[in-house]
Amino acid sequence: MKTDNANIIRLKDYKKPDYTITQTDLTIKIFDQYTQVESTLYFTKNNEVSGLPELSLNGIDQAIQSIHLDERELFEPSYRYENEVLTLQPTAENFILKSITHIHPNKNTSLEGLYQSGTMICSQCEAEGFRKITFYLDRPDVMAVFTTHIEANRKQYPVLLSNGNPIDQGELADERHFATWHDPFPKPSYLFAAVAGDLVRHDDVFVTQSGREVSLRIFAEAHNAHKTDFAIDSLKRSMSWDEKRYGREYDLDIFMIVASDYFNMGAMENKGLNIFNSAAVLASPETSNDARFDRIEAIVAHEYFHNWSGNRVTCRDWFQLTLKEGLTVYRDSQFTADTHNAAVKRISDVEDLKSAQFSEDAGPNAHPIQPQEYVEINNFYTATVYEKGAEIIRMINTIIGDENFRKGTDLYFDTFDGQAVTTEDFVGCMEKVSSVDFTQFKRWYVQAGTPTVDVSESYDAGTQTYQLSFKQHCKPTPNQP
Fold it and tell me: Residue 263's Cα: distance from chain center in Å?
């Protein structure tokens, strides 16, 4: 593939955004031929930036109906929309930008943003899909509080969901209705979720360690409604385990899972509203084998554990992907080991690592768990970033011990709650609680390849001393000596 003219994104070029968004208010009106998105964004300027630089927002396939800067409507050339970027000139350090655009979920074949999924409409925004819903600073280090209002035809879409807690619902003219959701926890746009469809709901309740009742809801299409029991039991076990093992209590009043036969990924950890492909969450004793149940339990746990390791504390940029995925894979592995048989789980993890990740490390696509550059971030959702990333977290745990590892995760979650951070921030917490110097160890994050370990032995009969010597090296990999 020729990439001479590709736009290469490099970690060394990272810079903070000139502006950030503190509050995002969305109104999504679903019609047969199009969906209208009304966006109200509250901006504030980065204090480290001088002057008032231009504002550039990501936006793909947005049919602009109107744009207002504070109370003033803008017309071209007061703004430019070209090459999937909307550019305009702010006039103050704090301002409100309102836009009304039309999008077409029924024609969105990219399966990113808001798209038709069978008979429902759902979203998929990781890594950069939100820009297909509205104009935005579509990057993980911009975290805002979201309020989402959805309107649609009641008969066609009786269920309207988004992130957070429900705060309002009601009837509208022309057989339409609405639902409004508010998520009080700041999140990046990649964690936004919306669903509209005709779904059956399965309810349950989980009582947290502090005594709060959390409403649990799993939504599925009618023909799958009888397959949700195991998923909701897995969710309750996951919530209880995370409280006991990591001290992490769920934070919203409601936790929801939506299962769709047509969702384009296995599952997605959107804050408070996980969306799954049916194969990753639904099962019945009549038609599913043990492996299916094991897989569902692990995936439900993984997406729930992201509530802290990925949502409450998220990635500063996409080079930090293993920060959330490696840590969460390790956490779901611990959950399975504690719930079932630790030795069997360890054997299974190593078998998967050897079959999938070792071959990746040995081939032309070898890359470190923290890539230093990319052309397309979706190419880095790999066994290396996930499974090798989890093994590196496991090594940290082994080096400093379980007690210090728990202290380190407590420090990490408590220090960086509501922030977008880096792998260095995570390792730094482990160094601080253990007084272990991880300078050399950090090379695991930037060095590709599977290490080769040579072992030699010697025995001195006179002193009755037996000695083992270990020597480790990495073979050259693409772009790394």
Answer: 16
